[in-house]
Amino acid sequence: MMTTAISPTTLRTWMDGAKRVCVVDVRDDDYNQGGHIRGAVNFPSANFTKSFEDLVETSASAEAVVFHCQFSQVRGPQCARYYESKIKALDSFKGQEVCVLSGGFNSWYDEFACTKYIER
Asked: For the Rhodanese domain, which residue ranges apply (predicted)?
């Protein structure tokens, strides 16, 4: 199963109203390193499988769920794959798009460092 990678620009467009999106930051102790994406929810990768049901509830109204970690090389994609495999098995699944933010928080920060899209 291959999750879709999206660019920071695409995510920003969605956040600006093109799509109901839930941004999931799976960073652990590094969660506040440089801040975080405005409105993102933190579900640390270390406890991700235990908090899956909470995330399903949190993201229920989203058309797309976008995962990221610092670089989106390991934790973000792993959690996205886990979420996607589990969510598709639920009766309540309504075709949510599951994506990974290309380049992770680092690429987001590079693009939007001094904007309203970063919270500290």
From this structure: 17-117
Does 69 participate in catalysis according to the annotation? Answer: yes
pTM: 0.94
Domains and CATH numbers, the chain: 4-119 (3.40.250.10)
Paired with 25 in beta bridges are: 42, 68
Give the separation between CA 94 and CA 117, rounded to whole angstroms.
28
Tokens of 33: 């390193």
Q: What is the rounded CA–CA span in Å between residue 79 and residue 16?
A: 25
Q: Of 64, 75, 62, which is closest to residue 104 (Cα–Cα)?
A: 75
Cα dist. 79→31, 106, 112 in Å?
15, 18, 24
Question: Which of the residues 69, 79, 99, 114 is marked catalytic?
Answer: 69
